Amino acid sequence: MKTLAPIQWMNLVKSVIIFFMISSIVWMAANYVMFREFFIGWPVLLGNALVTGVAGWWWYRREYHAVFSWDQQGFGLRRGGGDNSPKKWRDFSRVSLFHEGYGRFVVRLYQDDGARVDIPASDLKLAPSDFRFQVMELVAGRSVAEGLGSTRKES
Amino acid sequence: MEVKDYLVKLEDNLMVGSGRWVADFSESFWEYPMGDLVFDLFVTAKVRPKGFFLSKVAAWLTTPNYYVACFAYSKDPGLKRWHEILTTISGFLKEEEFAWAWLVIPHEGEFSRKARMMVEHTDVREVGIALVDLNSQEIIEAASYWSRRMPRFIKCFS
Q1: What is the DSSP letter of A89?
Q2: Which domain holds residue B107?
Q3: ipTM for this model
Q4: Which of B145, B144, B151 has the alpha carbon at shortest distance from B120?
Q5: Nearest by CB to A155, which of B3, B8, B26?
Q6: B37 touches chain A (CB under 8 A)
Q7: Residue B74 in contact with residue B122, Cβ under 8 Å?
Q8: Dist. CA A91–CA A87, nearest whole Å
Q9: CA B158, CA B71: separation in Å to the nearest integer?
Q10: Tens-place pLDDT, residues B90-130
């Protein structure tokens, strides 16, 4: 079974920036409430950076980090601290490529009852279009011996 | 250029290229069955674009929020099932309340004179139609408004 779990730098930076802004506001508010003064300096900035680095990393792991593993039979996908129950390709009947905006794509799998699962292809550093074709082959139960990008012959 | 290569480029152009000037083409299906036909490519879109808060407010105030689609069908370059293709698309638009659709028919070679005439004389208001000769890179569009808008967005040969 192949596993992918790349660091998503955009989401990590986003998490760190959010915590940096929150901790800065909290620090300033606490200063003002307690001392009616703002203490700003290099030690404060470095301490804030350290705290937000740790908190941002924790938040990223909890909310965004994706671990995707798959083989010919099925796949497992865990997003943040979410569920990682294995799924079978054959449980799905339709595959689409969905653009979430800003160049980020997911490969969307539909079950017959309308339930769906999104595989974050861009976040996993996979080529979305090629990966979609590979998933289509897997869902159709065909071999992917031809490798990424192999697909049905048109016309 | 092969049909598949063209369709990959068309899909890319609609979703992240110039197609975004027309609509937010967000979801794409290959080998999409509809009625008795299986379309090579089916891309759905909303006219109202995505964006951050201010863009969303501006779009909400200025743009109607209806659905549109783009179909590609390469299996019948001779247009022997022409009526069935148009009926299927028109039925889908009505049933799913889509406002309009584009139909792209790509082919590696020249279209017959009859096929050209059929397209040029087809006047379905809500369906834009274009034949795409991938060898000569010629596009033949129907006369309707949506057909005439198509060529600049489906011309993705390079």
Answers
A1: G
A2: 3-154
A3: 0.89
A4: B144
A5: B3
A6: no
A7: no
A8: 8
A9: 21
A10: 999 999 999 999 999 999 999 999 999 999 988 888 999 99
